[in-house]
Amino acid sequence: MSSTYLQAMNKIISDHVNKMENTLVYGENLDRGSYISGLSKNLIAGPTRLVKNVGNCEYTHCGVGFGLMMSGKNAVLFVKQLDFMMLGIDHFVSTYGSIRATKYQQPLGSFTIVAAIYDQGFQGPQSSFRGLGEICSMSGVSGFLLQELSDAKKIVEEEIPKPGIRFLALSQRKANEELDEIDIVDAAPDNSVIQYRRGSDASIVCFGHSLAEGKSLLNICNEKGKDASLFSGNFVKDAKWGLAVHDVSRTKKLVIIDDTRSTTSLAFRFLTDVLEFDPDVEFTVVRDRDEKSTAVSDERFDVDYERVIDWLLN
Amino acid sequence: MTLNNKLTMSDEEILALKLRLWQMEINEELKKKRFKVPVHLGLGTEALVVAIASVIHSGDNLLLTHRNAAYNLVLAEDPKAVVREYDGLNDGLAFGQLGSMNLVNPKSGVVYSSSILGNNISVACGCAYGHRITQSQNFTVVLTGDGAMEEGSFYEGVVFAKSHQLPLVIVVDNNNYSMASTTSERRCDIHLSLFCKSMGINYLLLADNDVQSYVAEFEVLRSAINSSKSPAVVEVKTTLLNQHAGPTPGWPTDPMKVDISQGLVIEESASDPIFVLKEKYGIEIFSKLEAELVSAKLNLVFK
Fold first, then answer.
1. What domain count does chain A have?
2. pLDDT tens-digit profile of A189-230?
3. Does the model's pTM come out above 0.90?
4. Strand arrangement, sheet containing A164-171
5. Contact residues, chain B to chain A, C-beta under 8 Å
6. ipTM above 0.95, yes or no
7. Which domain holds residue A17?
8. Are residues A218 and A123 located together in one domain of the fold?
């Protein structure tokens, strides 16, 4: 039986977390009710792994994770929606800043925050906050977007064990979609970019949870006889994404797809790095416009594929 | 150090005297504007500081505030390293990276210091959770104050610590001031004992500035905290004897009266733990020891 995006992500994450030791796994209602809409199902406690339902104090949840981390223990915090983490911004900026400047006696533990980005607005404006990039930018905390089975497995297995903190962000918009597998061709050493296809006519680089739109564009390109490389970007400080920059320099045509609605998007940073490396690159940007209403809506990310294909063909 | 008399000061009491001396030495340097980093001394908190330092063992965690100078002086292997840190030198206590308000020394248990009011309590909850995960007999102490109590994070942290039965002692250093505002000038009264009672949290009030009784109280707390399956709150009434941060540039009302040449007692009242020691041991014993320490002062802190 095929699984939905959310079921698949839950399996990948819980399989990994259930092997961790010296770990606190915690979140509001993570072990009852809807299990955070299914995100925190199948978590199992062990001799040195506690699974705890916690009260509604998100600022404290963030501080607790940092305390465990600096004690050499691990923390995995499950969060229903990213906007809750706005309450922890003091810890991400100030506490994490102090920790980075400190030389501890023992290696830091690992602190992972698993949060859904509510990239649809049916629950109202407070639940459609997508600014993971802003949080990562102001704090220096890394943020990884779980898009497909292949990248989710890679990121969960490689990033959670690392000392320090990171966000793993899921897309609410995709929660009930079925996943079609797409293999990874290559990846940056810091997972700041992951490559899914290698082509010769263009490079499609996706930011936010827009890989699905990038795949659709790639399929249309193929139908038109064009071949393109396909990447997805993650929020990593001082990203080592030369892999993607060189690919763009090779194809000379860059399509950026960005659903983050950020005015300080990582996509712009990537574009700057590309043009600094190769000023002859031509580019077009597909953005989710930020002037959309904040009223209740599906906040669908509409991509004008025809415009992009015309640009690519000409 | 012992005295040739019937009464002998304890090691902790002598350490309190030394701490007063070290802080007064630093205060003299503050008057000269030696440091670029703002140093928050704890002149008047010596009894509390020494008591806490005496119960921090290997594996315990101590989380401090911006007013961490006294704790770091007492807990550092070499107090001079604290001053070198204030000077920004790479052989300072934190390699010149943390300065004053965030100064830590993980080797001695000081894992975190935060200059943001109420920020360190939730971090301390995480440290205390670490003890629970490994079922160790260690504990965590976090310092906060009457100003930080006003933050929502204080409430959240206390509730979290109680809910999860964490081996955590929350020490409220109540000096009645948040910078220039007294408690009554900025908020309603908070009856901390009633607040704790409402959650079934052990509450202890310390107010007499006696080093030995403070040490004894913290030893009892430490031995009971893991078996009690509850955090504890200790409210300690203190008086800052040199206002908010000593002679800090830009601070309009800093008293310049604290002067090392006048001896170690700053205020002739029970607000000054060093005066309490003087009263306890008598002027003859106290003065002899004071003179001994002051004569050696340049060997204690400064380059």
1. 2
2. 999 999 999 999 999 999 999 999 999 999 999 999 999 999
3. yes
4. A49-53, A23-27, A74-79, A110-117, A164-171, A142-145
5. 61, 94-95, 97-98, 102, 104, 106-107, 111-114, 116, 119-130, 132-134, 152-153, 156-157, 159-160, 163-164
6. no
7. 5-171
8. no
